[in-house]
Every structure is written in C-alpha cells, then in structure tokens.
Design goal:
Low-confidence stretches: none
Shape: globular
Bound molecules: adenosine-5'-triphosphate, magnesium ion
CATH topology of the largest domain: D-amino Acid Aminotransferase, Chain A, domain 1
Distance between the termini: 44 Å
Number of domains: 3
CATH architecture of the largest domain: 2-Layer Sandwich
C-alpha cells in the first residue's frame, strides 16, 4: 500500500502511525528528536529539521502522501511537498491556524462568531484607550501558544503595556474575557471531493489552560446547540477548502450563544476518546482523507469519558527534586471499560501530556462513575 509521511514526532503522530499501520500502510516520520513518540512507532524515522530541503525531498521520494501532526510546521515545507505529492491538510489552512489574528479573520469570513478582539503589535497599540471595551480580557501571543502558554489576563488599560512586554512584545491578540457556561469541540473531516463527516460534539473541561476531561455524549449540550456547532465547523472546513481532520473549539456562553475559540488543523486531544468509543477514530479519518479512501460518518458505539494523564501524576510529592513514581495502572485497569494509552515519552515532566485514559460503557452514567473511580485512584480532581 506504500508509505505515508508525517511531519512531527509527537503523540498525535504516533496515534496516526498506529491507524495507518492497522490499514496496511507503512509510515515515515520526519522529526529532529532522536527519541519521539511517533518516531518510535514509525516504520522509518527521518531525523532532520522540518524545513530542511534535503529531508523534505527524501520524504517526498519515499511517500505517496504526507500529513502533519502539529500546526507549527513551516507552511513552506508543506508547499514544497505539495508540489510533488498529495499533502493534507493544505498549507494555506495550516498557515491560517498558526496565527490567532488570521484565524479570527477566517472565522469572520465563514460567518462563524468569535470573541471581540484586537491585534496588539506595538507599544502604541498596547497603550490605546480604544481597547477599553475588551477588558477584562485575555492577551494571547498570536502564534506558538498552546496549553494556555503565552497568555495573560488583563484587567485594566493601565496593565496592558506591561502585560504585552511580559509576553515578549511579540504580536498578540487581546480578546474580551467571555462568561463561559462550558466548552465544547467539534472534529470534522473533509475529503478532497468536498464530503464532510464529523464526530459527536465533545464537552471539555480545562484546568490551568490544559484539557483535563472530555465527555461524549456531551452531558450539558442540547441537540440543537450540538447541530449548530457541527454546522459551523463544517462551514469552516468548506471555507478553508480544507482536506483532512479539523478541530474547532467553541465556548458556550452563559446566555447560550456559541462562540468559536480556536481551531487545530489536525486530530485533537479532545478527540482521543474516538479510538475506543467510535467505529472510525479521528486518526482513521486523518488516514482516509490523506490516502483518498472513503470518509464514512463515525458512529459512537459507547459513551466515553477521557482523562488526560499529565506528567504531574508521576510526582505525587510536592518536592521539586522528587524522583518520578509510576502511577498505579493495575488499579486503574481493574475498572471496567478502561483503555489506557501511554505515549512512550522518555521522561515524565509536570504539565507534559504523557497519555490519556478513556472509559467506555453502554451508558454515560457508568462511564462517568468508572472515570471518577480512576480519578480517585490517581489523585486527580473529580469533575
Ligand atoms: P490549546 O492547548 O487548546 O491550543 P491555547 O493555549 O491555544 O490552548 P486557548 O484555547 O486560547 O489556549 O485558551 C485556553 C483556555 O482558556 C480556553 O480553553 C478557555 O478555558 C480559556 N479562555 C481562552 N480564551 C478565553 C476567552 N476569550 N474568554 C474566557 N475564557 C477563555
Ligand atoms: Mg491553541
Ligand atoms: Mg484551546
């Protein structure tokens, strides 16, 4: 069936490798790090920087189609590859997702509501009195932020210049801080023929800016709201002429309105439950879109609750120099419907995504009850 290529060596690439291998493909990963989750799982590991022309040339020569597992891959690398091979997602769409201002412009162009915001890219704009209506607000670096990194809450106009400097004085977006009822995400996949399928709406709980828990079916989302979110995500994929898997994060405001937060041009942490709870996972969809295989609508065959496993779990003591302790997986795996996924990262670090744990069950109440038991065993906060 040939070789497929992936730019990036993280856990998303690793789970793509697994899906591709299950379907009989071999996978080559381009990743500079010697030890990486995807590199270890791949059939071939090309160890070079993502934008190195010789490495891209070798990847294109070896692979029939190429995808990426992270959005900060140089768009030029995708363009170079696309001149020779099928590449998804498209470079233009990835470039939009790399910059919060471009991303919000894309939301607006597609008729998708997003938070009131302004671009701050100079000391003058940071001192502008016209920004008052956006406060209290969240200042976010326009590019390279993830897991809440590169963000600061700003309460008053007087605080803004210092907050901007503290983020490095780089181009930023100031967003109005919105009154959230809850957070959801929608994963769609669009084929080269324009066909769009979607996963069920995911309800997400974040702690400290990092995804902590995903529940599907979304317990607090009425069907009409779910339909609306799915329609908006599909509209975005179409407007971007997108091919591949796209995740759109939404806020549900206190008044019930739906507002897009950001999007990711790839499978998403909130979609990991689909490996165990759907008949077609988000990584299967990525593979199908990339390889030109049929996209069929995934069916949720089990209720699911996913818990993210951060490196903090390996450090039950507070001491800064404590040695890591492996969590009690046996206790977790004694619970019904537990699916443990560890990414094979060399070293546990606080805040680092080490794996995830999905509980499936015939009904949502059972999945939640078992996930809560696991949370208690692991010392995670209840939800
Ligand atoms: P990710 O890892 O999802 O890419 P990120 O670093 O890009 O994270 P955001 O998704 O922009 O960060 O924000 C992280 C979290 O902060 C959101 O999930 C939400 O809980 C909160 N948040 C962000 N923007 C706003 C806002 N405008 N109003 C209220 N809360 C917000
Ligand atoms: Mg983000
Ligand atoms: Mg986010």
């Amino acid at each position: 069936q040939g070789m497929l290529g992936v730019l990036g060596g993280g856990q998303l690439g690793r789970m793509f490798v697994h899906a591709a291998q299950t379907h009989g493909y071999r996978v080559m990963v381009l990743e500079p790090d010697a030890a990486s989750p995807a590199g270890a799982a791949a059939d071939a590991h090309l160890r070079a920087p993502y934008a190195e022309p010789a490495a891209l040339s070798e990847l294109a020569a070896a692979c029939v189609a190429i995808t990426t597992e992270f959005e900060n891959v140089p768009a030029e690398a995708l363009r170079m590859l696309a001149a020779r091979r099928r590449v998804s997602p498209p470079a233009d769409a990835v470039q939009v997702c790399q910059h919060r201002a471009r991303e919000k412009a894309a939301f607006a162009a597609a008729g998708v509501p997003c938070a009131p915001h302004a671009v701050i890219d100079s000391a003058e704009t940071a001192a502008s009195a016209a920004l008052a209506p956006l406060l209290p607000g969240i200042l976010k670096t326009a590019s390279l932020g993830y897991d809440g990194k590169g963000q600061a809450t700003v309460m008053t106009l007087a605080d803004l210049p210092a907050a901007w400097q503290a983020l490095g004085g780089v181009p930023c977006v100031l967003e109005q801080r919105l009154p959230l009822r809850l957070e959801i995400s929608v994963i769609v996949a669009r084929g080269a023929d324009g066909a769009v399928v979607h996963l069920p709406v995911q309800q997400n709980l974040h702690r400290g800016g990092i995804l902590a828990v995903t529940q599907v079916p979304a317990p607090d989302v009425p069907p009409a709201l779910a339909e609306q979110a799915i329609a908006l995500a599909g509209r975005l994929a179409q407007a971007l002429d997108y091919v591949g898997v796209l995740c759109v994060e939404f806020f549900v405001l206190q008044d019930g309105r739906l507002v897009a937060n950001e999007m990711a041009p790839r499978p998403h942490n909130s979609g990991h439950y689909s490996i165990d709870a759907c008949d077609v996972s988000q990584f299967d969809l990525q593979l199908r879109a990339l390889a030109g295989l049929p996209l069929v609508a995934p069916r949720l065959h089990s209720a699911a609750v996913m818990l993210n496993l951060l490196g903090d779990l390996w450090f039950p003591q507070d001491a800064a120099d404590a040695a890591p302790v492996t969590p009690d997986w046996a206790a977790v795996l004694s619970l019904p419907g537990a699916h443990l996924h560890l990414y094979g990262k060399a070293e546990a670090r606080r805040g680092r995504k080490m794996g995830h744990l999905t509980f499936t069950a015939a009904d949502a109440g059972t999945a939640r009850a078992n996930a809560l038991r696991a949370a208690a065993v692991l010392g995670l906060q209840a939800f």
